[in-house]
Amino acid sequence: MIEGNAFQLADKTLEVLDRKFFVSPISYKGLQRVESWEYPYEAIREIILNAIVHREYMGAPIQISVYDDKLIVWNEGSLPEDLTFEDLKKKHSSRPHNPILASAFFKGGLIEAWGRGTIKIINECKAAGLPEPIMEYSSGGISVTILKSQLNENSLKEIGLSARQIKAVEYLKENQIITNKIYQEICEVSKATATRDLTELIEKFRLLERSGDVGAGTSYKLIGS
């Protein structure tokens, strides 16, 4: 349970999620330790702010559920009759359930622009390499689901990647680009095998895209990175 005034709720919720429920992946840039979020911070903050502004305050509280592979924010209520979930993916009119509260949030700098919050959520998830959030009706309210990256080892095994290809994806998550030569070195395979594996990652699994000049100058990166 998170309690406080409306301006404190989003940040308090994020603090509790970070402290108690999220696992922060750790990487290193040189000797510098870097901790990142499992989910894009700005996307979750925007979802919570939207839920506060659109909440029915005589109804159920905003509910957040954290699972191994996803996070769900649920809020009681419904969209206006002439607004669809597809409309939320583009610029749309904003009719907050609590216009006075929405105005205070806007003037206080918590909301950048009315009618753009859902677009920001989608863009933040895409920028983080996550699937597009799922927005839908659920149990008498509206839920927003953010899925974790599908580039974890178990998910990659399930879709059929080999141990070598998984190793290459893990390398890309840390180093942004990979070449045929690097693939040969980290997987200890021939050039022909590296070419075949990389081609599968592009054409069959649709995880990578080519970058740079064709031939010796060709490199590969994760789609959306």
Describe this structure in words.
This protein has eight helices and eight strands. It has 225 residues and is an alpha+beta fold. It has two domains: 142 residues, Heat Shock Protein 90 (2-Layer Sandwich), CATH 3.30.565; 70 residues, Orthogonal Bundle (Arc Repressor Mutant, subunit A). The chain is elongated, with a radius of gyration of 21 Å.
Overview in brief:
The chain has 225 residues and is an alpha+beta fold. It has eight helices and eight strands; from the N terminus they run H-E-E-H-E-E-H-H-E-E-H-H-H-H-E-E.
Describe the secondary structure blueprint for this structure.
Layout: H1 6-21, E1 26-29, E2 32-35, H2 41-54, E3 63-66, E4 70-76, H3 99-107, H4 117-127, E5 134-138, E6 141-147, H5 153-158, H6 163-175, H7 180-187, H8 191-203, E7 208-211, E8 219-222
Antiparallel strand pairs: 1-2, 3-4, 4-6, 5-6, 7-8
Describe the biggest sheet? 4 strands, antiparallel
Weakly predicted, low-confidence segments: none
Report Rg: 21 Å
CATH architecture of the largest domain: 2-Layer Sandwich
Domain count: the total is: 2
Total strand count, please? 8
Share of helical residues: 40-55%
Strand content: 15-25%
The CATH C-level name of the largest domain is: Alpha Beta
The tally of helices reads 8
Spatial strand sequence of the major β-sheet: 3-4-6-5
The general outline is elongated
One letter per element, helices H and strands E, the order comes to HEEHEEHHEEHHHHEE
From the N-terminal CA to the C-terminal CA, the straight-line distance is 36 Å
What is the overall pLDDT average? 87
Q: How is the CATH topology of the largest domain named?
A: Heat Shock Protein 90
Determine the structural class based on helices, strands and strand pairing.
alpha+beta
